[in-house]
Amino acid sequence: MTLGNSTGAFVIGVLVLLTHAGDQTPPTPRPTDDVLGKGTVGVPVATKETEPPSAEPMPGHESPKPAVSAPPAKSPDSRKSGMPLGGAVAGALAQKEGRHVPADRPPKPAAPAESAPPADSAPHTENAPATKTVPRTATAPPTEAPAPAASPTPTATLDLGSLEKRLRETTAIGVFTKLSLKNQVDDLLDEFREFHKTHDQAMLTRLRQAYDLLLLKVLSLLQDGDPGLARDIASSREALWSILTDPDKFKEL
Amino acid sequence: MSRRTRAGAVLVSTATLVAAPSLAADDPAVLKDLTAVIALQGQPCGQVVTATKQGDNDYVVACKDGSRYRVFVNAEGRVVVQKQ
Question: What ipTM was estimated for this complex?
Fold first, then answer.
């Protein structure tokens, strides 16, 4: 065999190899595009993220782990097998079509693995946050609601001046009745003065009964003609009692 | 001024003086007020049906149960319910 023959045979062999390489690359990408194309390609990650939603959820949970180990193996394979050409072509196609790029590498587990981790991790984080946020928000409201509700309600506002003025001006009670009530209030106040002098606890019990009875009389007189005032006085019952029983506050009356 | 004119004036003034208290006594608000006062004093009455005004803050009342009371404000400013 001459040198020219051997050279020609070598050239032909190279051409055959190149053509075979070109023929092999196309078939693999297409089938993989449909199945794994979405999660595989590392370069077109941006394009993959848009499609993954429906296909990723099911396989996504299991694939993430293998994907992490796969990445290192993938890049060497593509370089060794002469994929650069196919990869370049695929890359060009991918840039044009966007989604075809992932298909080239899917056949190899390594390729999907690299791109998959980010894609898979993304869905996981999306799912996880969604589930976490829901419970958090659900639990948060109930805990917050009771706190504000409990604090504001208990304290009853007490404005003695306003209550006295409203009692004087109300038409629900006649003049005679108001005067009679005033007499009884004055009598009760006299008894409280005596209580604060003697500090007799037995007397306090009796005073409480008298106080409750007098308040009951006032409320019964007001409940029909001036329910608002009756309500306010009723809500101030304990506050008024605390003032009457506190020596310092009682002196200020 | 003739005798007839004087007599007429006296009659009118007398009627006015007498009529005023009776009108006041018929006022439901006053009857209710007197009923409340008697109840506040712990006296049996039920409900005041008629009241005759004797003067300022001074009434004689008849209760539904037949009892009669004088309700007035004494010199010390206290409301007094006095059974009659």
Answer: 0.72
